[in-house]
Amino acid sequence: MLKTIASLNMAASMIPKLAEVDSLTIQAIINDEIDQISPSPHPAVKHPQSFMGAPLRPLPTDVQRGGAKLQMRMDTLCCGAHGLSLLITVTKDGKSHSLLFDTGPEEAVWESNVTRLGLDPSTIERIVLSHWHRDHSGGMLSAIRMIEESKKTSVHAQKEVVVDVHPDRPEFRGIMAHEPISLEPDPSFAEIEEAGATIFKSDEVHTALDDTFLISGSIPRLTPYEGGIPNGIRYNSEGQWEKDELIMDERLVMCNLKGKGLVVFTGCSHAGVVNVSRHAIELGGGVPLYTVVGGYHLADGSPEKLQKSLEDLKALEPTVLMPGHCTGWRFKVAIEKEMPGCMAPIFGGTKYELV
Ligand SMILES: [Zn+2]
Ligand SMILES: [Zn+2]
């Protein structure tokens, strides 16, 4: 372990200490897929099934419907969207902290899903952006505005929300096809501040919210088969598109859940889900890997890459795997085949409790 840390040019004493948390829940606000029906396939992950997590609304008092006072409306179910946004809440010694990991692709989707779920955004103390890609940053300004607005009527009086980002924000990102294809820009630093947040820029490993969350620096790229986005490009300040396949601004977030181990959150795994998981273990200083939650980015991976990723992930002996977003159905099928019973995939609108 020490040898590997040394290989990252980081003394073990330099890694901030992550506190153990007593409980952890994950409310998936945005994910590519939704599933209101399936039961939890893993005893360590508790979540509602058969529409039981859907918010119920009261029927008007003058409506007679055989004694029914509540109804489940289809417009209270979340919409799927290409992207990720997870509300992570931990408790430690009776005190809770909430961190929003990514904000999905569009302001309207974030706003709509939070409203449909009836969530109170005022509890969110920090937004961490995994990397500068619009499917993770697109809802950010809406999230900041809703958090700040909700505080006006909430008992959870806090300072303005902190937005934790990597400092290296590209003007634009894109893909080089027969010609460059640009993505929409991520929110700018000025827009984030104008929306009401305080910006915290960091490319170094650090902790947040009473050391209950750890946010990594750049994730070392050590496996030969995890090479980022083929033909990824960025628009530089000289007005040129340049090659940018590795997305080195990508960071992981993790918690140390008491009696379980490391709960690792990965946005899109452009670093590779194996590099992400190994780096989390290195930063965790001997705490075992419990689960990896988020986008594994293997939807378009070659069969060889899927196989290698699975072998190396399995060797890390996670208790449960919680893939979502860009993981792709092929890798989920492969996990279920090779590691039967180990997977509890995440879906938009569902709240997960690690028990
Ligand atoms: Zn991405
Ligand atoms: Zn993504």
Automatic annotation (TrEMBL):
GO terms for molecular function: transferase activity. InterPro entries: DHPS-like_MBL-fold, Metallo-B-lactamas, Metallo-beta-lactamase_dom, RibonucZ/Hydroxyglut_hydro. Gene3D superfamilies: Ribonuclease Z/Hydroxyacylglutathione hydrolase-like (3.60.15.10). Residues 88-140 form the Metallo-beta-lactamase domain. It comes from the Eukaryota. PANTHER family: METALLO-BETA-LACTAMASE SUPERFAMILY PROTEIN (PTHR13754), METALLO-BETA-LACTAMASE SUPERFAMILY PROTEIN (AFU_ORTHOLOGUE AFUA_3G07630) (PTHR13754:SF13). This is Metallo-beta-lactamase domain-containing protein. It comes from Daldinia eschscholtzii.
